[in-house]
Here is the input.
Amino acid sequence: MNMLRLLPLTVALAAAFPAQAQSLQALYESARAYDASYQSAKAQYDANLFRAEQARAGILPSAGLSAGASRTHAEIRSPAAPSRDYSAQSVTLNASQPLYRPANVATYEQGKRQVALAEAQLTAASQDLIIRVSQAYFDVLAARDTLAFVQAQKTAVSEQLASAKRNFEVGTSTITDSREAQARYDLVVAQEIAAENDLRVKKLALDNVVGKAGADPRPLAVPVVLPALKPDDVTPWVAQAEDASPSIRQARTALDVARLETEKARAGNKPTLDLTASYGTARAPNSLNGVQTRTDSTVVGLQFNLPLFAGFATQNRIKETLSLEEKAQADLEAARRGVAQGTRSAFFGVVSGLGQVRALEASEQSSQLALDANKLGYQVGVRINIDVLNSQSQLFQTKRDLAQARYNVLLGSLKLRQANGTLQAEDLQAINALLVK
Here is the structure.
């Protein structure tokens, strides 16, 4: 039987695991609930939200309650006034409301920027998880394909070895044909062992990412039709990154925070004004003079403070924050350039990958025709056994390269969206549509 005429590999694999196989999106959802790196990023996101809320405290009113009780023993050195013990209790409620505190307002604005920063960081972590799951997913498919191709090649070489031995026995070929076929067979056996181990390792890596033992990814359905790259111009992809890229958003937010830090530093020269209020009561049931007393007091007022001189600390703090502001501006520009470069590289990588797939598809057909011609030539005596073996190796290598190139294109399309910041979990649906149902 000619192994090259068998059903496509993906169909055979899908038939072998119809119920247990999972889609890429399903495994991603599993990884979201398990992956430690993503859970860490999610916890950091929640912490940043609470930190942002803390910044509001500087512009909101504050209140405090204090209470005290004491007992005093007084030794009076006079015959007419004996020693006495007396007690006192007091309760005071204080409240204040900032009216003019520019530093507190800047801190509050920084807190709001922290929310945007937390969102960008969580988006980056989510995109990183998508890529890691997809990489592990396609690594398993590629390793599985490699093993299947090597096993098919092993069967084909085994048949060629048996044919060479029969021809040698009847005297129509030399011992060289048998030895060449045996050497090729031994090489394929070694490749099969390596492919089995590689598949085992890749499966463990996928299990580790998604938190599911024995994860079984669905293969691509045949015929494989890769989606075209839209838009097919790199300029729109780069333009999208300005607003979508988490790296640029984080750098832009860091610049806003640095500018607000400069405002806080300048506020060191500005006055502050607070509205204050307090209510207190003090009670002395047994005072020193023996009279029971109680005092209630209510105070409402304004507290004004104007810094005059702080040993040039404020001036130097302003210079420091201005320098940090320049650094943040430079970091933002570096982020923009890096994202643009990464987007262009990813875009042309996908374009090149699509071209490589088309070339390998043509090469696969040519290699099949070459193998058929060499087999026919071997049968009629115009080709030798090594020609057939070389044609088989070339065909299986082409099939393996073609399968890998397709996975690289699909993964590259996700990395392109990660590069310009538009990658979302919904993008996995397009890949799911290419998988065996």
